């Protein structure tokens, strides 16, 4: 089954993209490194960071695992639950 991409950016996807970008910066890794660690295609990660896409739960779990987060934390609009400093 082909991957289906949303043509518009939803608020949830925009938040997910911002959260992925922030977590990448915190870990000091690139989207390519995230791809290698998570098994998610780099092109799909790039698309999500831009606020697009329609990731599966498995994709979200793979990304969250790399960041040491739950899926809920990865999607959350409030970053206080993710700040572990």
Topology:
Blueprint: H1 11-27, H2 31-38, H3 42-49, H4 57-67, H5 71-75
Keywords: DNA-binding
GO molecular function: DNA binding; DNA-binding transcription factor activity
Organism: Sphingobium scionense
Q: What is the N-to-C succession of helices and strands?
A: HHHHH
CATH topology: 434 Repressor (Amino-terminal Domain)
Query: Terminal Cα separation, in Å?
Result: 41 Å
Quantity of strands, as a count: 0
Mean pLDDT: 89
How many strands, what sense, and barrel or not for the largest sheet? Answer: none
Reported CATH architecture: Orthogonal Bundle
CATH-level-4 superfamily name = lambda repressor-like DNA-binding domains
Specify the CATH class. Mainly Alpha
Low-confidence sequence ranges: none
Based on CA atoms alone, the radius of gyration comes out at 12 Å
So what's the overall shape?
A: globular
Number of domains: 1
- β-strand amount: under 5%
Level of helix content? 55-70%
Please tally the helical runs, counting DSSP H or I stretches of 4 or more residues. 5
- Specify the structural class: mainly alpha
Domain HTH cro/C1-type: 20-74
Protein name: Transcriptional regulator with XRE-family HTH domain
InterPro entries: Cro/C1-type_HTH (IPR001387), Lambda_DNA-bd_dom_sf (IPR010982), TransReg_Diox_bact_type (IPR050807)
Pfam families: HTH_3
